[in-house]
Each structure stands twice: as C-alpha cells, then as structure tokens.
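User: I'm writing a short report section on ligand binding and want a predicted complex to refer to. Could you take this sequence and FE2/S2 (inorganic) cluster and write out the structure as tokens? A short remark afterwards would be nice.
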Amino acid sequence: MAIVRFFRGALLLGVAESEPDEPLVETAERAGVDIPTNCTSGNCGTCLVRLKEGSMEYPDPLPPGLDEFLIEDSGVLACSMSAETPCDIDVIPPL
Ligand code: FES
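Assistant: Sure. The structure tokens for the complex follow:
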C-alpha cells in the first residue's frame, strides 16, 4: 500500500492509499479524482497522466497506449498501472 497524491499542476486534488495491484484510476476514484478512461485496457491513451514523484509498475510488454517517448516524459496509463511506492501524480497528461 502506498499513499498517492493527485495534483493538477500545483493544486492538490486528493489523496488516497493504493491497494496492491490496484489500477491508478481506482485509487484516484477513492481520492475523489476523476481520471477519464475509455478502453480501460492500455490501448487508447485516454487515461494518460504524469508521474511527478515515486515509481509505478510498467507493464511488459508496453501496451499500445504507451511508448518510450511518453515514459521519458513520465507518462503513466492510469487504467492499467499501479503505484509501487508513494507517488505524486499530475492529472495533466504529458505534452
Ligand atoms: S483508458 Fe485506454 S489506455 Fe487507459
């Protein structure tokens, strides 16, 4: 379990404790933060957010909604990734 804080820029939107292997989007829901989703299976990229601090479990192989460039920009797919450590998440997607 890890504390996850959700931000929009500098604004703190909510905080929740993640369950093991819980998709980030569900942790966000418990924090009262709505992350838009579409496919919920790592394909479309709708749920893309940015990891500011901490570490996430990256799926191997990478799902179609994520690539090396997005990862370099701290991109995280909230529907199919979970927090490994305490994390700060920016719900603004990488540019
Ligand atoms: S909702 Fe489609 S990749 Fe997450």
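A remark for your report: Helices lie at 24-30, 68-72. DSSP finds two helices and five strands in the chain.
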